[in-house]
Write a structure and sequence with these properties.
This protein is mainly alpha-helical. The protein is built from 1 helix and no strands.
Length: 42
């Protein structure tokens, strides 16, 4: 394996996981807002 291939594969992995992380964060935020709006504040 040469040194030119390592950054390319690392960039591809990073680019692959970025949408997954963004969707996961969006789902977490959506659930937080949904649960916070369902229960009245005291």
């Amino acid at each position: 394996m040469n040194t030119a291939a390592a950054p390319f594969t690392l960039a591809r992995v990073r680019c692959y996981w970025r949408p997954v992380i963004m969707v996961g964060a969006g789902v977490v935020l959506l659930c937080l807002f949904w649960f916070a709006s369902r229960y009245p504040h005291s």
